């Protein structure tokens, strides 16, 4: 899954406004970011097989460190602990925000179970593997992606506050980038190598997170004052 992960990030932003959307973008895609790194290190393995599924040509051979159920739980706890220990001036509801970061990291696994074939391990390589296989049905895959992404985006748009406004132009740039990248992955040419796939993810995920943080910037004191005056 791709767009669906970002839909979860949009929704969780409104569950805890103090969290940067950029932080949540990294959290929901942490498994894929780690997977790209582990592919380059040779710790996990995949290969490109044309028509392996109707949606993706990637055959995931082994990736228990980044994409097992146990790994999702462990990385979620690690991410929550790191966020909680990070120095911050705003300690209001800090532990709640840390929990949501952990939930965001863990959410990657159940969403991937929806679309992957049965290749997502519960633990190690020899453990049972899960996957409902929506990738074998392009229409069902797109419906699932757009549904989760759309729900998250609607929540982000409708539950905004004065301190956390929606910046429509910036948000439009972010959404176009995400949807455009998704469509390119569906209808574009096969990737030339797994190295290119891994490096692309390692670059794309932090870059998109930075764009999300820019699009989600908190209202400045000047903007809050302008809102107060216009409400008179």
Could you give a short description of this structure?
The chain has 232 residues and is mostly helical. The chain is 64% helix and 6% strand.
Descriptive notes:
This protein is mainly α. Helices cover 64% and strands 6% of the residues. A hairpin with a 7-residue loop joins strand 3 and strand 4. The model has no long low-confidence stretch (mean pLDDT 91).
Please outline the helices and strands.
Elements: H1 3-15, H2 21-28, H3 30-41, E1 45-48, E2 58-62, H4 64-67, H5 69-85, H6 94-115, E3 120-121, E4 129-130, H7 138-158, H8 168-187, H9 194-215, H10 221-230
Antiparallel strand pairs: 1-2, 3-4
Helix pairs in contact: 1-2, 1-6, 1-7, 2-6, 2-9, 3-9, 5-6, 8-9
Number of helices: 10
Order of strands across the biggest sheet?
1-2
User: Would you identify the regions where 5 or more consecutive residues have pLDDT less than 50?
Assistant: none
What is the string of SSEs from the N terminus onward? HHHEEHHHEEHHHH
Which radius of gyration do the C-alpha atoms yield? 18 Å
Largest sheet: 2 strands, antiparallel
On the 0 to 100 scale, the average pLDDT is 91
